[in-house]
Amino acid sequence: MKHSLLFVLSAVGLLLGLYGAYIYGQQPQPQPPLFNPASNPYANGIYAQGIIESDQTEGENINIYPEVSGPITGILVAEGQSVRKGDTLLTIDDSVQRATAAQQEAQAEAGAALLAELEAEPRPETLNVAEAQVANAEASVKTARDEFDKQERVYHLDPDAVSKETLDTDRDALEAAQTNVEVVKKQYELLEAGAWSYDIATQEKQYMALSKAYAASTALLGKYTIKAPADGTVLSIEATVGSYVSSAGTYDTYTESLGPIIVMGAPQTRLQVRTFVDEILVDRLPDSANMEAQMFIRGTDAHIPLRFVRIQPYVSPKIELSDQRQERVDVRVLPVIFRFEKPEKLALYPGQLVDVYIGERRGAQTSTP
Question: What is the pTM (predicted TM-score) of this model?
Fold first, then answer.
């Protein structure tokens, strides 16, 4: 009885094991892909990774850094907004610079007033005083001469009536009065001539220096208002009101690095894609006159024809990491730029990674080296 039970249990366990093996051995039906992977549409096409950019004749994007430092006091645009050249993007606290400019303006105005004063000399009131001093000095001469003449006549009539010492004293007083008239007249002539030309020239230079200092201070004050350098679209704003910015940009909390406070691109009606062709494939690139390409949008079945624009003739390291200063890659690539019209019903944005196949236009003449 005991052996029969063991035999039955063994048979049941064997059947369960065989059934489990059968169940687990069944292959599940694969799910259909959400999109078809990009396939090479050219017989000898070259694959390259690309990044969408604004359509520009040079460079990648407009990276805006401030030329001054301080906290941001206002942001007047939003990401994705179209702006015109000269539109105000943001403002930086300019209270200290504004006070400095006002001080230098006052100094320039003081310099201008002093220059005008020198050029306006002599003052009529000053000349009137000098004329009165000349008249007073001449009157003193007359008084001294009358006194000397009187004493001299008396002395000649009766030498004992006037001492020789008194006569000499009156003569000295007359000569002193005559000398004083000459001095007063020279002072009048000096006042009448106005300010010395060298003093005016010195003050002109001083006023010019103060004016230029004020102009430089005013120009620097304008740097606290960041304006759009060209027509375009605001792609990203990397700071907010209250953030401290400097000429190195603004600190990004997530990447822990400094970057531009605003990134602008050209108007988004047309975009371009910058492809990076591996240096070992550069020799296989078709002639630029016959080159064409197709761009495949990741996550979709969409593909867009591209039109060749230019080759950036500089092979550079391929960028793969977020912090370029810590990049440690050996792959070097040649940037090739293509242009395309943005589809109306397809969401595409600058900075988006795409797959690109570069080939030769059908029917093109292949050049032989």
Answer: 0.64
